[in-house]
Specification:
Blueprint lengths: L2 H22 L7 E4 L9 H10 L4 E5 L6 H10 L3 E6 L2 H18 L3 E4 L11 H19 L4 E5 L7 E2 L2 E2 H9 L4 E5 H6 L4 H7 L4 E6 L1 E2 L11 E2 L8 H11 L3 E4 L7 H16 L10
Parallel strand pairs: 1-2, 1-12, 2-3, 3-4, 4-5, 5-8, 8-9, 9-12
Antiparallel strand pairs: 6-7, 10-11
Helix pairs in contact: 3-4, 5-6, 8-9
């Protein structure tokens, strides 16, 4: 067989094999995660992670240590091919044992810590208090940055009280400096009377994630705290998703505070986001 014929034969064999190789190529997953708080009543930790896996989601945001050792948590995450992309850690814990928090999260492969909620005693009462809290979080942000991690802040509605034209959240982030990231909870933004799409633009460039959750129509789903699965409520996702992409949101974290059927809520939200994130033009896709 001459060189030309041999080359043609090899090329033909390679082309014939391409479809088989194509089946081995795994398409990149959409940047969707699940906040584990949504699954707290859905059985054991193993069962909860299985729900995430079965919904086709490959990432979670943990609630602290999830009540287990770092080694056990990492083993369970690996079992279901799930990555921990962030963890909700109370401010009190960050103040008390920052080194321990960093060590635990490093062990499970997580590099983002999130202040999830302020107890009533920790909530500033005035503009000066929000500024002081922002300065403290800025200092913690620098400390965790030196450890190869980052700090983010998750809002509810009480941060959006107005102080002479600036919300508590505005004051907090202005005082914290550029290291502090935001995890914007879209449903709570709407409940506070603000447009989530507009709010996203205010935090362009420092949006680690959004909590993708929805609000049911007024008077409905009262046994679920008035929340709804993503895309099944009152939020305008046709405006929110392009705004989120423009603002540089990195992760869309599905959450529901009081789901009647956690598995259904996670699957519904994941399906909705997968379908609608794909229609965002590539140039504006989440980074």
């Amino acid at each position: 067989m001459n060189t030309s014929v041999r080359g043609t034969a090899i090329l033909a064999l390679l082309l014939a094999a391409l479809p088989a190789f194509a089946h081995d190529v795994v398409a990149p997953r959409a940047p969707i995660a699940v906040q584990m708080y949504s699954l707290r009543n859905a059985g054991s930790l193993d069962q909860q992670l299985k729900i995430v896996h079965d919904a086709g989601v490959g990432a979670v945001e943990t609630v602290g240590t999830q009540g287990v050792s770092a080694a056990e948590l990492k083993q369970l995450l690996d079992r279901y091919a799930i990555k921990a992309i962030s963890s909700h850690v109370p401010l009190a814990e960050l103040r008390r044992d920052l080194a321990g928090v960093v060590a635990f999260n490093r062990s499970i492969g997580n590099t983002t810590l999130v202040v999830p909620y302020l107890d009533a005693k920790d909530r500033p009462k005035d503009a000066a208090g929000w500024t002081a809290l922002g300065q403290e979080l800025g200092r913690i942000s620098k400390q965790v940055r030196d450890e190869g991690m980052r700090l983010a802040y998750h809002n509810h509605d009480f941060e959006l009280v107005d102080f002479n034209g600036r919300t508590g959240l505005d004051l907090l982030f202005a005082a914290a400096g550029p290291d502090l990231q935001t995890e914007l909870d879209l449903a709570w933004v709407a409940r506070a009377g603000y447009d989530p799409a507009v709010m996203l633009g205010k935090f362009r460039g420092r949006l680690f994630a959004v909590h993708a959750k929805d609000n049911a129509p007024k008077g409905q789903a009262e046994d679920e705290g008035g929340f709804a699965a993503v895309g099944q409520g009152m939020l305008d996702w046709n405006a929110i998703l392009p705004a989120a992409a423009d603002a540089g949101v990195q992760w869309y974290i599905i959450e529901h505070d009081q789901p009647r059927d956690p598995a259904k809520v996670i699957k519904t939200g994941a399906d909705y986001l997968r379908e609608h994130l794909t229609v965002i033009p590539p140039a504006r896709a989440p980074r």
